Task: structure prediction
Amino acid sequence: EDTRFFQTDRLKAFWRTYQAGGCPPNYTAPREPLPFVKGDMGDASELFWKDTTIGVVPTPGHTRGALTYVVNWGNKITAFCGDAVHEGGKLHQPYHLEWDHWTGEGALAAWYGLERLSGCRVDVLCPSHGEVMKQGANASIRMTRQRLMAFVKSKGSVCAGAVDKWFGVEALGKGISRVLPNLYLLGGAKVWLHPWVAEPLVDRNLLDVPWLPTDSIAPDRVLPEKGAFRWNGYRFDIRPFPGQTKWHCAFDTEIFGQHVLFSGDNFQPPTRWNGTGGFCGFNGSRFIDGFGQSAQVVLDLEPDLICNGHGCVYQFDTDQYRRILKWAKQAETAVNDLCVSDDWEYDYDPRVMGWSPFRYEAHAGQWVRVSFKVDHAGEKKMHLKVCPTVPDGWQLKQTKRTMTVTSTKTRRLSFDMRIPKKTEKGRYVVGGEVEMNGKLCGEVAVAIVDVLV
Result:
């Protein structure tokens, strides 16, 4: 299942198209191909070593092809489970289970893998991250399974039991569209962006976020973060509207005596996509401070009509948005219960540590300065050692640097690397290996370097 990430052509294709889509099929794909890796293990296969048989149990989640190896070692049944389980019924970085931006497919697969593993006797559990569990292995498996199901349910309806109140929109003639896809190119339309929405768009190389346009966008106007603006005779009130993503806004006005809210993709009618455009850590989703905050805005505004993304128009219903408030608390609890650290946002946000900018352009023979950024919202200090990992032959001026991050501060470390003169044109991947508080975390982030002609 995961062999495509070891094959040269398929791995190159993965990195070449990385920013064009949504959630990546692998959050920790290798930087370079590993042609010596065989993909001959899976369900109903065993590994024989000397006089020992090693059983294989599929435990997908962090990747679709993740496996647990079970062996009788010294009269102890030992399971090498990767990141399927962490001590205390937790999971290392649960955003890896989000195979797409809205369904619970990955989490449900992880739950079923642990359901199968729980049928095996396990005396010792050896995860990739966390301590070896010599006591309570089966209890940890059981607790993780229960918490995974709560996470799966949080991926369900955000307003369970609410009633659809679609607003009937008259049909237009055949072939006529209310939205002209070429308006921007042919109709002289201008781009006005809310500052939160503008952040990942004005420089598409800055952030590792999904669904970026091919090119950066230079807005004709940046709207106020919170306030009013006028367009075509209408007065709009605008404000941040986080939820499905941090980079989101909503604005409202009066049209033909109706109070209309344009609210993007956070919330949908109950029968459309579980009442939401979905959530995932890679898209910067937040719950109480995201969906909940925005749902409260709608309750305070009490609009007549809500116009959402994907052509959705429906009547405001207080009951639906009160249910969303309740769901936001439940979803945040489900995510928090799975996270290893005391700061769930640190575990659930893949951008807590990373290269910023995410993408660089350079010429062969050139020195390039890259920046490693750490955002820390927790109360405990983090002592970090960062070591860049670069393609063979690339020169580093600083092979490692250290820093201490406290409270809500953001810290950066700069590194200088030289690209060899004979480097061919193409896309290359640079890693960042991190040691935190004396423990090796491995490569926690990558940056893309496009070498030009």
